[in-house]
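Task card 7
Instruction: Convert sequence to structure tokens.
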Amino acid sequence: MLKFNSAILIISIFVAVAFGQCDPNWKPGQDLPGTNGSVFAITAWDPDGDGPQPELLIAGGEFSTAGDVTANNIAAWDGGSWQALGSGMNGTVYALTVYNGKLIAGGYFTTAGGGSVNYVAKWDGSNWQALGTGVNDTVWTLAVYDDELIAGGIFDQAGSVIVNFVARWDGSNWQAMGSGMGGGAPFVCALAVYDGQLIAGGYFSTAGGVSASKIAGWNGSNWQALGSGLSGVAYSLTVYDDELIAGGEFTTAGGTSASRIASWDGNGWQALGSGMNGGVRSLTVNNGKLTAAGYFTTAGGLTANHIAEWDTGGWQALGTGMDDDVWALAVHNSRLIAAGEFVAAGDIEHVNYIAGWNGSDWQPLGSGIDKEAYSLTVYDDQLIAGGMFTEAGGVNVNSIALRDGGNWRSPGSGMGGVTGYPRVYALTVYDGELIAGGYFTTAGGVSANNIARWDGSDWQALGSGRDDRVFALTVYNGDLIAGGNFTGGIARWNDSGWQVLGSGMGGSYTNVSALTVYNGELIAGGYFTTAGGVSAGNIARWNGSSWQPLGGGVSNFVYALIVYDGQLIAGGSFATAGGISVNMIARWNGSDWYAMGSGINQEVKSLTIYNGQLIAGGSFATAGGTNAKNIARWDGSNWQAMGSGMNSIVKALTVYDGELIAAGSFTSAGGMNSYYWARWAVPEVYEGDLNHDCGVDLFDAELFTQRWLDDDCMYNGWCYEADLNYDLIVDFADFAQLANNWFK
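Output:
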């Protein structure tokens, strides 16, 4: 009885409390693998040492996003996602290391986290801090030696001390290291610790006043030469097999021929095989092997695109390497990480400036669709996307991908056979199979001219296909209908094969780009002047035997068609329909054309229906006079924006798993990074929102009370969603969490 009275008291106390309902908005989007600009430095950093937090991979460079987060020139990868480090830097990060448990960044920046730092800064896990007054110019390299932080670069002053291109920080103050480097226009761009000495590489002819060609060692009090040094810049240094390894842009080391890489054993220099045909910019050791990276294409005479590894057997390539320069190497979670200016690595076309090597293949850090998407549909409870992309979720997909359970996968080997990128422009479901139309000559390795079908396991051709691109698909009277710029512009497919509908479309340039069914007739839109020989301004209807116009048609291209609220809706680049001003979108009631408010100010590319409203996507900035960036909704009377919209064109729309899905050429939705596709829905369910109406209120309290009084949950080991703390009983502890969310 006490439990019952307590539950009733709960309801009585909160009966007058209302919870503001939350509105649908854009959800956090799909990221793009890697970053959107060059990465020049990477290192591993564990924020809490031996504590429970995972080791992070830190990337620094010249970028503004990493994965799906804004990250100004520096970001952290935790093995599954990217994170920003505060507000980042106002310029390029060139160097990273760890000193006294803190992350240190150096480069060409004067602020970090909004505060003045002057080219070098430390991150304590929450905030960026200056190291004294910093240095007076760019920091190229960082290291730790004898419990001090060492910085090298093109600066000549650190704090108030003249240091000449290399300096040490003892935790409180900057100090010089002898008289630093000299000769010509000196700089230090590489540091390492070897045999108890700090080794500095770069471009200089003296170190501490001693002759030292491009490389020198510091013993704690004095600089010393390493033999006769190098003939060119040493860009990178590491230790391998008890020897110092130098990589750079030199051809001799100690007077011995050594092409861009050499080893120092404490007494003399030796070449590593025949070396590289281009500069070495980074070195590390991984799995007992020396790894070198840079802007070379051969190592030891073998093809090795920008990265290679060395052991007692000589040089070996790492897969097919990268398509551009590699600037940095590190090991994170037992995996080699490479970063630089490359976009592709191995077979993955878009890893975007950073990638991981698992011993046999290159893999992206992050996942997403790598290029534009043009079409969407749902097949076999899976979201299907088509476009010109080559990867989705880090998987090779070749213009078409399936999303199931939160992961992207490829249906077979996708599309191919054409010069450049094959494209999937249209998708539909016909006779239990997925149909894809576009620009390709193979599907799953099978010959298929611009249209193919997928039965869940294999791709098959539809006869001889179409002789040019397919832009639109639908089903009408049991036939598959295809539209495009192929001969005739429109055709149907059934057991008898392909047939043009009537004499097809005509005009100086014929293109059918939109199809739907309205009032028992097939509607075709695009760019044409005749349909079946009958005058038809870019839109026409087929009754099963002949073509007829829709009023006076529209004045320009029709890109999208749909039926909404009993009327046909057409979107495109037209200004008039039936002679009246409509501005890119219009409705047809079966006999006349009508405007929809004041219309939309630029092209409408796609249409769908979501939660009883018409959704329009395209390349516009306003809808009905309201700011609406590339996407808007129509409630039957007025246009409304959908959050802050997208930053580029919305080309496809559909509904999947209760969410509106948009795809196109955009890279952000609702102000969040969302590369080429995005989701619109109510926010994630609130804890305690038992009736899933996007609020915690009296109705949820009533359901909570019912669950509390339901002794069944005691016996079946499951207490519905009212067991908010997952202790297999519904009690006051759960109510405390419900009440907390009620008052948020």
